Recover the amino acids of this structure.
């Protein structure tokens, strides 16, 4: 009779890839953890200390409502603007470099997660990336919709915030 080793609980549940996590933590940079739900884009900047993750800051695309956003909170322009907001908050807390942590989500070129990352990068935060994975600027700015002017106004509002 062969005894098999039981995998860690979070690995069995499909929540954590420990090999990928190890390589992310080895770099010592804060991690940009981005998740998408059915309604919102959620993100946190986490720092690992002594085998624990501490959340430095977090943001949800729901925050865009306070800036006058009346459209979907899960589309590409909303993801970009939420990323831009998080990047500005990170710079205020003197976090200038991060590394992307998508968890076990498969990477898809031009996805909402990469629109979010482009927003963070455009705000001035350094994240290792390949520009080929970002969505087109016309899609990020909503030029394919009738609300393009409203999107540009809110982006300018975010850029003007302190």
């Amino acid at each position: 009779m062969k005894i098999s080793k039981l995998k860690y609980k979070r690995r069995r549940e499909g929540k954590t890839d420990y090999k990928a996590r190890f390589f992310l933590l080895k770099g010592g940079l804060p991690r940009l953890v981005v998740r998408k739900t059915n309604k919102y884009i959620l993100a946190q900047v986490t720092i690992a200390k002594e085998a624990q993750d501490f959340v430095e800051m977090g943001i949800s695309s729901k925050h865009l409502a306070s800036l006058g956003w009346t459209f979907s909170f899960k589309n590409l322009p909303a993801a970009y603007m939420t990323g831009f907001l998080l990047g500005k908050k990170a710079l205020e807390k003197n976090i200038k470099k991060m590394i992307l942590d998508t968890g076990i989500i498969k990477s898809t070129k031009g996805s909402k997660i990469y629109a979010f990352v482009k927003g963070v990068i455009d705000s001035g935060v350094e994240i290792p990336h390949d520009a080929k994975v970002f969505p087109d600027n016309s899609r990020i700015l909503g030029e394919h919709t009738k609300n393009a002017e409203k999107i540009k106004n809110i982006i300018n509002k975010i850029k003007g915030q302190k």
In short: Helices lie at 9-12, 18-26, 76-92, 112-122, 137-140, 148-160. Residues 15-160 form a domain with the Nucleotidyltransferase; domain 5 fold (CATH 3.30.420.100). Strands lie at 31-36, 41-49, 52-60, 99-101.
